[in-house]
Amino acid sequence: MVEDWDPLVGVPAGLLDDDPVARISSHIFVGSKAPWYEISDDLPQHETWAPDEDMNERAESLKTSK
Predict the structure, then answer these.
(1) What's the chain's Rg over C-alpha atoms?
(2) How far is Cα 47 from Cα 54, in angstroms, rounded to an integer?
(3) Which of 23, 30, 33, 61 has a CA-to-CA distance to 43 between 20 and 30 Å?
(4) What pTM does this model have?
(5) Which of 8, 4, 3, 14 is nearest to 28 (CA)?
(6) How far is CA 60 from the centre of its chain?
(7) 45: which residues sit within 8 A by CB, 6+ positions away?
(8) In this model, does residue 58 exceed pLDDT 70?
(9) Using one digit for the tens of pLDDT, what is the confidence trace for 29-52?
(10) Do 29 and 48 meet the contact criterion of CB atoms below 8 Å apart?
């Protein structure tokens, strides 16, 4: 059986044994980060989802594709 999967996959970091090679491209939900947590790199920061990501649309498309 072949299933269509959404290309966005969440994996708890604690499950990784080795370097995943993939690197982050931006920070999301910085509007709700802990005030003591400092982001010290120059990657883009987004208050919620990145502007090109609409999770409501993605969720609806997954519901209707089954």
Answers:
(1) 15
(2) 13
(3) 61
(4) 0.55
(5) 8
(6) 17
(7) 26, 27, 30, 39
(8) no
(9) 999 999 999 999 999 999 988 777
(10) yes
